[in-house]
Each structure stands twice: as C-alpha cells, then as structure tokens.
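The instructor's notes for this session suggest beginning with a concrete chain rather than abstract definitions. Hand out the sequence below and ask the class to guess, before any prediction is shown, which regions might be ordered.
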Amino acid sequence: MASSLAASLAVVLHVCASHDCFRYPLTGDPCTVSGYLLGNSTNCTGGDTEDCCAAGVLYPQYLCSPPVTGETPASMVIGSFAQGGDGGGAASCDGRYHSDDETVASLSTGWFEGGSRCNRNITISGNGRRVAATVVDECDSVVGCEEEQGFYPPCRNNRIVASPAVWKALAIPEALIGDYNVTWADAY
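After discussion, reveal the predicted structure:
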C-alpha cells in the first residue's frame, strides 16, 4: 500500500511540475488575503491594458508572502526598470532607474520585507538555468490602481518582476514571456 501511495504521489508531482498545480510550498500555511482594493481607473501607462485596474473590480491585497525556502516557488513577469519603462517611478531601494540590460528584480511585499532585501542578490531558477538578480524594488501587494503603479492592481503575493536581462539569462523563449513559474532563493 505504501508503494502504491508513493507511486501515485510521484505521478501527481511529475504532472504538476509542468503545470501550475502548486502555487505554494507543500509545507506551511500559505499566506491569505489581507483585504481588497476597489479598482478605480481604466488609465494605463503600460502596453498591456488588459492587466490594468478596472473600475468597480475588487483586487486582493496581501501583507505577506509564502515562506522563503531554498527553492521558493514564484510567479515571474517581465518588467522594465528603465526611465519611461512600465515600472512607474525610480526603484525604491536606490531611487534610480535601471537599464533593461541589468539583472534586477522586484519582490512582492512579504518577500521584500520592508526593504530588508534591498540591493541584495537573489538567485532565480527557471528553464533549467540560474541567474543572480539584484532586488531594487517592491512589487506592492497592497497598493495599486494608481498612477505610481502604472494603474496596475496590487501584485500577487508570490510575484517577482524581473528585467528583460533576467529573462534573457534564463533563456526563456519569447513566446513564453508572461506569467512564468520559477523558484528563487537568497544568494549568500
């Protein structure tokens, strides 16, 4: 019986490894919604208007993120930290803009930990590769739908926004750029 249970679990884990079955680690309680933000605008500064806030829609807010482990699952999206890019203003960690050629990232509110990871490297793993990226900003999981956030809703609690250089270093095909499952860890 134990071997059939182990075999079944192995099949589930194999199938889920290539799909989006697990958003959080298998241990520990996932972070839950802290509140909701009412969308108030259809203005959008980025090129992807379908992701912008819509008037009257409730968007979840999170004060926490899933626990950080040696391989923390995350959802990564692409973002420009350059002046005029889709990130809004300058990076909160250093008050500067960053070229799309720099391997930089922002972390959701819980992982950002009030700036404790500012200017520190994390290792992002995906597509069979790894890259070191410097945390330069917060992907706010509480505030959103305002001009400073490009009229986008609050970030999910397991979000990494990574520069084009990170995506390039991971050799992720252009057709897969979007919401991409990765893992990350603090780089010591």
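Then share the key points. The radius of gyration is 17 Å. Residues 8 and 14 are 10 Å apart (CA to CA).
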